[in-house]
Amino acid sequence: MKKIILIFYFISISKIFSADCISGDCFNGQGVMQYPNGDKYVGQFQAEKQSGYGTYFFANGDKYEGDFRENQPEGFGKAYLANGNRYEGEFKKNFPNGKGTMYYHSGDVYNGEWKHGVKDGYGSMSYQNGNKYVGEWKQGRKFGQGTFTQNNSASITGEVKKPQKPLQPNPMNEKKNTPFWSS
């Protein structure tokens, strides 16, 4: 029993030194938590964890606004990436998961299903040049039945049988050099 209490004590102490509650109630309530790396969270806390609605500001300029559970995006949220991309939709355990829309800085828009941070399931990609793909996706790539329309005119319907190399997603807190958080 002493080991468990001692471990809990050191975990609690490390949290105190790793972040500062700069205003409000960062244990059970509304507060503002500042992290040593420059990140900041403004929102609801439950048992000293980001839980409920809040906004997380990353030092690199990324921002997540929405539902949190156990210190992770969970539920509906919006991610504004420093590169100009924006995602709105469902999150599960730190990843876009479920239905969501990605607005790319290039003008392309993907609306559809996501799984573990990448396009997976049924969705449509409207490209800035007028082309559009509507169909199935697997691990971030076109795969299965789909229709490609070129410049709102000629359409090709068929099956993509061999997708390109699948993308490997990483969660939000490990977002550097990952498909979603660096796209």
What does this structure look like?
9% of the residues lie in helices and 53% in strands. The chain is elongated and about 60 Å long. The chain has a 13-stranded antiparallel β-sheet with strand order 1-2-3-4-5-6-7-8-9-10-11-12-13. It is built from one helix and 13 strands. With 183 residues, the protein is mainly beta. Residues 1-17 and 173-183 have low confidence and may be disordered. The N and C termini lie far apart (47 Å). It has two domains: 1-46, no CATH class; 58-174, Histone H3 K4-specific methyltransferase SET7/9 N-terminal domain, CATH 2.20.110. It has one helix at residues 2-18; strands at 20-24, 29-34, 40-46, 49-57, 63-69, 72-80, 86-92, 95-103, 109-115, 118-126, 132-138, 141-149, 155-160. Strand 6 and strand 7 form a beta hairpin.
Tell me the CATH superfamily of the largest domain.
Histone H3 K4-specific methyltransferase SET7/9 N-terminal domain
The level of helicity is: under 10%
* Bulk shape: elongated
SS-based class: mainly beta
Q: Give the CATH topology of the largest domain.
A: Histone H3 K4-specific methyltransferase SET7/9 N-terminal domain
Mean pLDDT: 83
Report strand order across the widest sheet. Answer: 1-2-3-4-5-6-7-8-9-10-11-12-13
- Given as residue ranges, the uncertain stretches (5+ residues, pLDDT < 50) are 1-17, 173-183
Using the CA coordinates, give the radius of gyration.
20 Å
